[in-house]
Amino acid sequence: MSAEGDEAIQRLIALMARLPGLGPRSARRAVLQLVKKKGALLLPLAEAMREVAETARECVNCGNIATRDLCEICADPKRRTGQICVVEDVADLWAMERAQVFRGRYHVLGGTLSALDAVGPEELRIPRLVERVREEEASEIILALAATIDGQTTAHYIADQLPGTSVTSLAQGVPVGGELDYLDDGTITAALKARRAL
Amino acid sequence: MSAEGDEAIQRLIALMARLPGLGPRSARRAVLQLVKKKGALLLPLAEAMREVAETARECVNCGNIATRDLCEICADPKRRTGQICVVEDVADLWAMERAQVFRGRYHVLGGTLSALDAVGPEELRIPRLVERVREEEASEIILALAATIDGQTTAHYIADQLPGTSVTSLAQGVPVGGELDYLDDGTITAALKARRAL
Ligand SMILES: [Zn+2]
Ligand SMILES: [Zn+2]
């Protein structure tokens, strides 16, 4: 046997250690905690994971996580149409939602253009964005992308694909090289209010 | 809806955030990772958790995590009998095992005596240790407890319960106030070799 007991425990530790933010040591601590709190934590967690595995999918419209074809935001009639906020990933969408300042809809690119990693527009959800702008007669596209080179390259590429549409971008408050998901709500609110035309 | 999408996702994030070492932000990151790697990570993790929940229990002999009545160490005929290493918790047992220097068996106390937290001998697995020493005719009890006040109080209490039995304690290398699970293998090896009689 190995140091960490039987196979099922070892397998659980190895899988937990693959989660972002957990190394082998914290994975071991987490598993001991789980075994101690079998009813209060381990079983509910296993069940929540199974449920998410069965239901989670990509929203066919915007790329957000959804449990049906359309995510809760795309399906919500109270969300303003005609204003689409473009984010790199779902973590950024969640950060925007926590700021509670944007009432339109989203478009999740799934990454940024990257010459280095050979990520082109077809790898992202850019063609679908162009379609949506036409279909939904969007009046404003707000780019909430990171202030990195790849983020800004992506922003300019999207603006070029949408001539005649107002394309703005979060400006004030997004630190150079900073990622959206690390910002506090106030900074996101300020950046949204000070958005400027590209 | 809340910022983090539908109920199942929110529930999973809230449960993950209760794991040691994960806060709300890293729990969100972890859940997004899980959804992205549904087949490679989320489903195997849900399954491993279910399996551990169904099989994991306490070894009736030593208190280690087990999948049967006896843990793999107590059931292993190649482990030396007559030498019992006493640890506070299973994380410490795993740390000892990783050092690969001890070939006897263990006894997991489940804590240390603590006047402050009102933890007495009956709350720990001390009466069972005294029984085992008699039953297994143990010739040496090695106390691998933290060099904290409660750890040392516990060590002396155990030594008092076992007159006529050789009770040693890890010595050199365990930093004052230090916890065993943080030590590297070499330090544990040195401490075991330099153990001294109480
Ligand atoms: Zn959607
Ligand atoms: Zn055992």
UniProtKB/TrEMBL annotation, chains A, B:
Residues 82-175 form the Toprim domain. It comes from the Bacteria. GO terms for molecular function: DNA binding; zinc ion binding. A zinc finger (C4-type) spans 59-74. Keywords: DNA damage, DNA recombination, DNA repair, Metal-binding, Zinc, Zinc-finger. Pfam families: RecR_C, RecR_HhH, RecR_ZnF, Toprim_4. SUPFAM superfamilies: Recombination protein RecR (SSF111304). GO terms for biological process: DNA recombination; DNA repair. InterPro entries: DNA_Rcmb_RecR (IPR000093), Rcmb_RecR (IPR023627), Rcmb_RecR_Znf (IPR015967), TOPRIM_dom (IPR006171), TOPRIM_RecR (IPR034137). May play a role in DNA repair. It seems to be involved in an RecBC-independent recombinational process of DNA repair. It may act with RecF and RecO. Belongs to the RecR family. This is Recombination protein RecR. The lineage of its organism: Bacteria, Pseudomonadati, Pseudomonadota, Alphaproteobacteria, Rhodobacterales. The gene is recR.
